Amino acid sequence: MRIAFIIQRYGSEILGGSEYHCRLIAERLAERHDVEVLTTCARDYITWNNEYPEGADRVRGVTVRRFANAHPRDITAFNRYSDWIFNNPHTREDELEWLRQQGPWCPQLIEHIERHARKYDALIFFTYLYAPTVLGLKVAPARSILVPTAHDEPAIHLGIYQEMFGLPAAIAYNTEVERRFLTGEFAITAVAEETVGCGVDLPQQTHARSPVTDDGATDDPAPAADELVRGRGGLHCITRDEPACIAAG
């Protein structure tokens, strides 16, 4: 299968939670599938300055395509605008302006998704918050999976996210807490939902029973069932030992 991961920044030295999570899954799936990461040239999430070279790269066995951001973020102006929009009546256009100011604002990345979406069997979007996800999910929602990495914060109550959470064909939650929050806050219409967590590689175990973490999950990198769902949308988990659910078709 050909799979695209869409994430705001990507690199072996980037240790942000969602970025690291995305990289672990992309590297694992790249062992068996044709995987590409579509991202920006940013290394720093405060400024979104273009620090990585634009174009194709290979990072730990994964093809990465980076696109230049249109402009850096003015964090002072953005914080001022955020204070206003979170506390005053405003329009949808105001929210889109907030999204632009937040960054990363990368029209070339969205244009690439629009031109090439049909070439991918699945588009996996990491993190609900940023423009690549908000705008990219609109392109091919029927073959899109969202890994929201969400929590209750002022931004998530903006109207643009009400629209966005109704788009993807599948949602992969990290925790049951996240799942309960999002399903209570939004009209989720995904044909497939699963709490998948994030697997870890442990040393070889000599006992038969899988270790269990504090939240009851095992170290299995694909804690979802063998088959998430078959039917409308053709969504399924590839296999039990692969840490992602894939939209087939």
Characterization of this structure:
This protein is an alpha/beta fold. Helices cover about 25% and strands about 20% of the residues. The protein has a single domain, classed as Glycogen Phosphorylase B (Rossmann fold). Helix 2 (about 75-85) runs antiparallel to helix 3.
Which helices and strands, and how do they pair?
Blueprint: E1 2-6, H1 17-29, E2 34-40, E3 55-59, E4 62-67, H2 75-85, H3 92-102, H4 107-116, E5 122-126, H5 131-136, E6 144-147, H6 159-164, E7 170-173, H7 176-185, E8 192-195, E9 235-237, E10 245-247
Helix pairs in contact: 2-3
Give a concise summary.
The protein is of the alpha/beta class. It is 27% helix and 18% strand.
Overall body shape: globular
Number of strands: 10
CATH class: Alpha Beta
Q: What is the fold-level CATH name, i.e. the topology?
A: Rossmann fold
